[in-house]
Amino acid sequence: xxxxxxxxxxxxxxxxVVMFVPLTAIKSLVTERRTRGMEAAREVSKTWGGEQxxxxxxxxxxxxxxxxxxxxxxxxxxxxxxxxxxxxEKRRRGIYEVVVYKSEITLKGTFALPSFFESEPAVDRxxxxxxxxxxxxxxxxxxxxxxxxxxxxxPCRIRHGKTPGAPxxxxxxxxxxxxxxxxxxxxxxxxxxxxxxxxSFEIYLPLQGAGRxxxxxxxxxxxxDLSSTWEHPGFQGRYFPTSREISPDGFTAHWDVxxxxxxxxxxxxxxxxxxxxxxxxxxxxxxxxxxxxxVDFYTKSERSVKYALVIITITFLTFFIFEVVxxxxxxxxxxxxxGISLSLFYLLxxxxxxxxxxxxxxxxxxxxxxxxxxxxxxxxxxxxKDSVIVSMLLSVLFGAFYVILQLxxxxxxxxxxxxxxxxxAIMVITRKVDWYESFGGVDSLE
Length: 446
What we know:
By secondary structure, the chain is of the alpha+beta class. It folds into two domains: 3-34 and 297-438, no CATH class; 50-291, Immunoglobulin-like. 39% of the residues lie in helices and 29% in strands. The protein is built from eleven helices and 18 strands. Strands 1, 2, 5, 6, 9, 10, 12, 14, 17 and 18 form a ten-stranded mixed β-sheet that branches. α2 (20-48) packs parallel to α7. The radius of gyration is 34 Å and the shape is elongated. It starts with a helix and ends in an 8-residue tail after the last helix. This is Inner membrane protein. It comes from Desulfoluna spongiiphila. InterPro entries: Uncharacterised_IM_CreD. Keywords: Membrane, Transmembrane, Transmembrane helix.
């Protein structure tokens, strides 16, 4: 085969590989900007409340054992109903936008307590007046206004500061047991199979956080309802919603979870130092929702850079076909400058996306890149018509890849089909080309 043909194709192949250098640098820049955006999101989340997990409540009753040491017995609720509406807001840190939320979480339910103390022979004295209820909140700074605790429809006094024997981190409220029916029933110490009638609680937690809200199902039966006007929820955790509705107006989700597997003890005793339930026990049980931002411009920019080499290769092939079919004289420097122009498209896309949004940035960067290449190629192609063809081809390519970027789930199918159609088009255009004659008239491989 003619040495000129081999040299030309070799140069084009090398230039395609060389384009990896600016594209790699741009991809690294996208990663760096994304990292800075995540840092900004963490800073906003830290001041706003962060990702929240609501746990509980847990009822704790202190007692004194026969060695005169204070110990605690903790009870999980029999039934738990949790509900909350998340009101999303957007906060900015510089050019970065973060989704946060305000909510009022309501916890309702009952405790059906067995005569637990009868099975504790070490009990010497039960401290009814020291009993308290604990509602777990992972980030206490997210509680911005006064919470309310009700026990048997009576308001409870919230404890401030450190609470000895508390099994979970959060808010704690004293409950009146000493003169209550619960106190008398437990004090009677009936048979271990006897249970007192359910005792109700209601807890109202005005809570703000960022990104995610989880609930830990500590009851024997658990019903959780969450809703928001945010139209892009991401459900996560151990349990998927029993039912859900998602629309442009927001979402509602319902969970109905029963503690069949018994992963959490219904009651247990502890000392002052070993009351806390570890996060490794609670976190795997939690579930909830995340207010997901649709594919952000950093993700789209990063994905678009992955397609850059395809666009550059197709553009170079187009110029090469012009050389073969129309005998245009195209110098390697022309290829290099066109490749750089295509690479700068992605830099423009990234920088403009941070201020204008991805779609607007894509349009502006695309028009700028296509216009510059169309104007430049008119100087070395056979005529203005060929330059228009190149511009139209690039417009179709950029438009097709924009659609692919929007349809994330179908991107592989559409991308594969598009590349196949491009190959078919090249085969049709060049099917009658005499490749031996195109570069010097040689008609054999010798």
